[in-house]
Amino acid sequence: MDTVEETAPHFVRCVKPNSSKLFVADDSSTANGDGAWEPTLILNQLRYLGVMETVRIRREGYPVRRAHEALFMKYRLLLPSKLRSSEDFQAGCREILSLVLGSSDGDGDKDSAASAATWQIGSKKVFLRDGQLAKLDAALRRLFYESARKMQSLHR
Predict the structure, then answer these.
(1) What is the pTM of this model?
(2) Full set of structural domains in the chain with CATH
(3) Which residues, other chains included, contact 139 with Cβ-Cβ below 8 Å and sequence gap of 6+?
């Protein structure tokens, strides 16, 4: 029991490639031959296991998920210097996201604001819609570029 309590279990979902349960040695088998892949069987298993639903939810929802500390430590340079040393990672993340992406974290009306929100802050993670992480990276690159340009101009 000690070993089980110390680990973070992951569950493996097994999918049978065909109903004859034969090993497919290579990808050259045809869909009609013995030992071939049966797409309908595989798709039905994926639906039953909830994989297709999980993929759909991730696409429609917030596919990018980062821990508060990880996001704060990577993007804290985007904050004013007095806020960079904060120990409250959740509040720091809220400031970074509000500054770069705008304050659309869905705190208002559940129907309108939450559906249009580009980011959400949970109790342990930050959730971002597609493309929002790229905007954060672009803002960080722009900051580095401007800082390098300023240092070069001071050196000359």
Answers:
(1) 0.60
(2) 2-57 (no CATH), 63-155 (3.30.70.1590)
(3) 75, 78, 100
